[in-house]
Amino acid sequence: MSESVLSCRELTKSYQIGPEPVWVFDGLNLDIQAGDMVSIVGTSGAGKSTLLHLMAGLDLPSSGAVTVDGEDLSRMSERRRSQVRNETLGFVFQFHHLLHEFTALDNVLMPTRIRRKPNAQDRDYALSLLEGVGVAHRAEHKPSELSGGERQRVAIARSLMNRPRLVLMDEPTGNLDTQTSGQIQELILGLNKTAQCSFVVVTHNHDLAARMPVRYRLEQGRLEAY
């Protein structure tokens, strides 16, 4: 049996909007195993990004539990949650969120900088990640000097810097043209094998979603396999 990296158990989430709470999830369950490649689709407003935030500990559920390597994120201190995000999880967003004053290489090194000053081995590994995503030749360029696809490749390399067990991706191809989107799709699928980590990809792109071995649709607060 595969080792569970992340689990959601009877997850609920509500927001107070006006006099009545608005429920986003109602008893949602999900297991991510080591090496899984999972896609989640759903209409706008279904709660896909909210689910990713809960999985990352950036937000906490109203009830239920999200566990990472068996630890309940809700029971952790904020410092411990930050540590888990830095050491166990990686993130890629629709908008790359690169730091514009830093080079591509320095952006990839940023997760390590949060913990300590990067050393020569860290820089070598960051360069190997940039090479792996096809932009090593752009290592010393700043984000303003890169194309949209190149920026997203740098963001993907950054998400792998601390050798996470799970990478969470929120619309990783949503801001790209069709050709570049296809290239990023191929990159993501290949990284699942070479990076030896799990991926959860939230996307409107049904072509990308359909290529994942494990597929879910988020509807009415619940995940349904499809």
Automatic annotation (TrEMBL):
GO terms for cellular component: plasma membrane. GO terms for molecular function: ATP binding; ATP hydrolysis activity; transmembrane transporter activity. The keyword Transmembrane helix does not apply. The keyword Transport applies. SMART domains: AAA. GO terms for biological process: lipoprotein localization to outer membrane; protein localization to outer membrane. Keywords: ATP-binding, Cell membrane, Membrane, Nucleotide-binding, Translocase, Transport. Gene3D superfamilies: P-loop containing nucleotide triphosphate hydrolases (3.40.50.300). Residues 6-226 form the ABC transporter domain. Belongs to the ABC transporter superfamily. This is ABC transporter ATP-binding protein. It comes from Natronospirillum operosum. The lineage of its organism: Bacteria, Pseudomonadati, Pseudomonadota, Gammaproteobacteria, Oceanospirillales.
